[in-house]
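Priority: medium. Attachment 1 of 2:
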């Protein structure tokens, strides 16, 4: 078992889906800022390899088994954080899937949407619910949810908005739901001093996009790291990208 951080100013962060892409870069960014980073991943081999590579950069980054769709692993992760640290300062809900490819909405099945929602929405609720007692013990907890412009009803319904490519029925609707969850948690947890925000990393070249994006994973991670470490003056209940607020 790893040693608990003794310094009062040592902060602990959990990043879901942290074994590759934007999640890996968020873990790296928080590690460089001195956070103890728990890199959650459902694939043990990839998770351990990624955490070891990041830890080799002289950061305290540790693999944490976590599949957000499996309640047992969510509870086990919360138990580990409880026993090892006694609190959680940052939760970044990055884990997400899209199973529809570039097919139009009329070709997507209910089962495909259900699978996407299970990870992108229900999984986020499961993790927040399990970690909330630990977040409440932090002096200034932060929750960051990884969203997208494809989940913006404002952009989707605006005929003058820049084209965003395929209308991904399951993925886009799951992120719209995630944005709604962000608003509700932000209001509910305001008295606890917990800030909850959604961020859009933009179209990044990762495995998730088939490496078709025009931004790097590191660029996409920057706004999430910023919101994860924002001070008391920072926003809550917001949806932001690098340029500032985005339409809901």
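Attachment 2 of 2:
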């Amino acid at each position: 078992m790893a040693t608990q951080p003794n310094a009062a100013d040592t902060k602990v962060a959990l990043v879901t889906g942290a074994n590759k892409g934007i999640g890996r870069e968020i873990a790296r960014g928080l590690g460089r800022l001195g956070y103890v980073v728990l890199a959650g991943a459902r694939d043990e081999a990839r998770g351990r390899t990624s955490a070891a590579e990041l830890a080799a950069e002289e950061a305290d980054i540790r693999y944490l088994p976590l599949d957000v769709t499996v309640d047992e692993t969510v509870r086990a992760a919360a138990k580990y954080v409880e026993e090892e640290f006694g609190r959680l300062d940052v939760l970044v809900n990055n884990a997400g899937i899209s199973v529809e490819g570039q097919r139009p909405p009329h070709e997507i099945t209910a089962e495909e949407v259900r699978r996407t929602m299970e990870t992108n929405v229900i999984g986020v609720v499961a993790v927040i619910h399990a970690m909330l007692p630990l977040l409440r013990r932090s002096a200034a907890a932060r929750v960051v949810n990884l969203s997208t412009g494809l989940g913006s009803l404002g952009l989707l319904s605006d005929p003058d908005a820049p084209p965003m490519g395929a209308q991904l029925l399951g993925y886009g609707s799951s992120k719209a739901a995630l944005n709604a969850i962000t608003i509700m948690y932000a209001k509910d947890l305001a008295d606890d001093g917990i800030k909850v925000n959604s961020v859009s990393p933009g179209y990044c070249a990762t495995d998730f996009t088939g490496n078709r994006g025009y931004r790097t994973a590191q660029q996409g991670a920057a706004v999430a790291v910023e919101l994860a470490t924002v001070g008391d003056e920072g926003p809550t209940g917001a949806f932001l990208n690098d340029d500032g607020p985005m339409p809901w």
